[in-house]
Amino acid sequence: MNRFEPAQTSVQMALTGFRSLAKIGAGSQKIVFRAERNDGNVCAVKLYPVDTVQRGSRAEREIQAITAVTGPQFATFHGMRRLPIEGVEFVVIEEEFIDGDTLKSRMSGTPLPISFVRHLGGQLLEALRVIEACRLVHRDIKPDNVMISSADRVVVIDFGIVRHLDESSLTATWAPRGPMTLAYAAPEQVSNDKAAIAIRTDLYAMGLVLYEAATGFNPITTGVSRDTIPGRILTHSPEELARVRPDVPAEFSRFVHRLVEKQAHRRPQTVQAARQLFDRIQWSSL
Amino acid sequence: MRFFLQMGYGMLSMNRDLLTRYAAGADAGVIVWPRTTDPQQALSHAQDVHRLRGSVLFDSCFYAPRSEHARITSFPYWPSADAYDTTEFTAEAGRQFAEEAIRYQVETLRVTEILLPGSFVNTIDQQWLDTHRQFAEAGAKAERGGRRVFSTVAIGEDLIVHQQSFDRLINELTTFPVDGVYFLYRSPNGQYLTTNDVFLLNLLIGFLSLSLAGKEIIIGYANQQDLIFAAAGVGTIASGNFRNVRRFNPAIFEEQEAQDLSRKTWFYDGNSMSEFRTEQLDIAYHHLGMRGRFGPRSPEADVLLDAINPSQADWPERSSFMHFLQILREQWIGFAQVPRNRRAAAASAMVHLAAQQITGYRNSRFALGQRSAADALPIYADVLEQFQALETDRIAEL
């Protein structure tokens, strides 16, 4: 069922306290605006239609998550309210507007400097540490969901398909697979092995993001047809990072390959374990 | 490193003697079971072990849920037939059974750590995983006075050698809300010492993943083969007297057996990780000049190894068992002297030394007999070498 999308004028009329709204994104669950308050401050406004039970539940999970995670690696939550727009109930979230680019646009198919890759790795680990502590799995870590501010602040966004480990799954057990972005999905997501999904699932995606940041390409999806991707996720091991980009430290290459192990039990099981590996990397050549 | 005594026929007094000898502390204890004890004996033995300052654990022997074994099913936690929905528990009954089994261990036996029930499986399925996760969740929620909780995982050779299934099992176990796993495996073809390299390598890799996930592993029904699993971070093994408690066989929990004892007496030669008959030692001493080459010694073994004719020595079954358990414990506890991430190399060295010993026996024309580790040791050596090569980074993290 397609998400209901109200006209922008209706949104503008319903949302009081803003002098301008500019739509900057829309997904299956929400519409996102850059909003300028009457006092001149800028924030992000997210509109979640709760017109179906499923959408309502997902929106509720996302809101729980974004109010739980705090720290410089996340947008600051400002507030929430419920509003009817064009006769449909919406949940409206206001949060910090991150002024910057997505990691995807920063990369644009070219390898990033190793010093930045190192910074990115450290910041993503910190973000995942917070996510893990909240008993969450983001499940959609990817370059589009990582914002980079002009001061190189790294911010993880979009908890739209977050999994709460202490709550029942919203995906049917019989479903072939749960929600995901295929290009960064871990094998356990592709096979909908729900019990195996844990923070190590996000660590897998982080490994692919780092690989891509260091090389400029996603080793699972690049140069192959879309219908072969699920199979490659389950069976294809990326070429050794240190061979593709010889100037990365060998320990960093090994670290990335540990994160993208096909079998979840072979990856670091906690962010702390991953952090210990990351901190042992000799970056001296930088 | 901890070494526990696994119950078996005639183990009650041996447990007391061995625990006294060990000057038991946290690294020693007994896994009480219902198979050869009634509830009153189990309680009284648990109290004895507590008095001797040993750890008390309880194996509920739930390997065959439809068991007709009179002793096993006589214990108060055992589920009634109406707890099942065809073959598996109903959801509520599963939770209640786990709670009953925990309550029995905590309130009656006052165990040191809790072993959750677990049924034997040789092919993995979602229902088995769900039921055992439910047990684990019941353990996590139970009033347990700070006791650590272990899932019981009893599995067969088909599951272990089937890579996809075994990975799936380990993937799930690493997320169970428990402190560790009481792990029981049935060997391929019922071999006492396994020569299946894939089987052993998969176990090593699985144990390594569980260890790195912070799960403590207790290998139950262990023998000298299980010494190699120190390489993967395994912290505890449990072994007993007869072979049916040194190698896991789920069939023994299904029905009461009229006679399941093997009445021959053997000598465990830790040097070669092998067992020999006393008559073999006679030949070795008198015809091959091999006196002094068997060992290590235990308090029981002196009378045998110093005898002119070992087969005429006072070497009853009990001495044979006490010696085996003493030496196996020493070999296991010896790994405590080695940092965890160097135990793979230490296990490898142990296996190589044992293999050299076997070569020496062969060179002396000693007939190795049916319980030697001659066939298994080269497999252990190869598997440990492969394990170290494949898992260098992860072993370093132990």
Automatic annotation (TrEMBL), chain A:
Q: Which residues form the Protein kinase domain?
A: 18-279
Instruction: Determine the domain of life of the protein's source.
Output: Bacteria
GO MF terms held by the record: ATP binding; protein serine/threonine kinase activity
- Keyword Nucleotide-binding assigned to the entry: answer is yes
What keywords are assigned to this protein? ATP-binding, Kinase, Nucleotide-binding, Serine/threonine-protein kinase, Transferase
A Pfam family in this protein?
Pkinase
UniProt keyword Transferase present: yes
InterPro entries (UniProt xref): Kinase-like_dom_sf, Prot_kinase_dom, Ser/Thr_kinase_AS
PANTHER family named in the record: MITOGEN-ACTIVATED PROTEIN KINASE KINASE KINASE 20-RELATED (PTHR43289), SERINE_THREONINE-PROTEIN KINASE NEKL-3 (PTHR43289:SF6)
The name of this protein is Serine/threonine protein kinase
The organism of origin for this protein: Limnoglobus roseus
TrEMBL record, chain B:
Identify this protein by name: Uncharacterized protein
**Organism per entry:** Limnoglobus roseus
